[in-house]
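Subject: sequence -> structure tokens, single chain

Hey, anyone have a minute? Need the predicted structure for the following. Not urgent.
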Amino acid sequence: MSNGSAHMKRPVIQINNIHFRYNDNADDILQIDDLQVREGEHSFIQGASGSGKTSLLNLITGINRPYIGSVQVLDHSLQELSAMQCDQFRVDFLGIIFQQFNLLPYLSVLDNVKLPCWFSKRRHRLAGSSANELKQTAKRLLIELSLSETLFNQPANRLSVGQQQRVAVARALIGQPKIIIADEPTSSLDTDNRKRFLELLFLEADEQKSTVVFVSHDPHIARYFSRVIDLSKINQANFMGYKQE
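Reply:
Had a minute. Here:
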């Protein structure tokens, strides 16, 4: 799983001197002096539940903003973008795998996978300029992720948890996003399926030259990654009992 040349490549995520809290009267959730993720890396961010992992992902994706410091993603300063610009940046360049998958339950499997391309001209162009090409790309991803073709036209709410997970990964990967963000997507899987899932994720990400940032409280996953970042060691914030995960 290692990508030994990643340290020679440019940073695609740069976090400098950030302080983040959810309201003015609360303690900081995050205080991070410096964090960089380089192009092509498979980075694993570990930390206990409530340690601020999801808060960190929300900063990287521009959903939240620090009140001090800067977050640069793909050479864009996210805090300088408007909310609308940030939304477009996110759908154009980031593929996000949510813990709860966030599939649209009554859309078909194929339509769920194609969804980002409906909102991003960039990803639509890279996935296929015509409707048929886009459909074929979605099918190819699903097949490579070991989902049966008999399910492609089924609504997402008829799938098992494992099947929904594969659809969520295909949706994140379609259109060659620069960075794949994964928030605890293996929490419902056993050891064998978890390993298989990670192998497929890395294979597809490397194929399209995407960087992977994977967040989990499960330390057993760490061995599959070329870089492990322990949030407790880089987060200087001093707070107790916060539950955001």
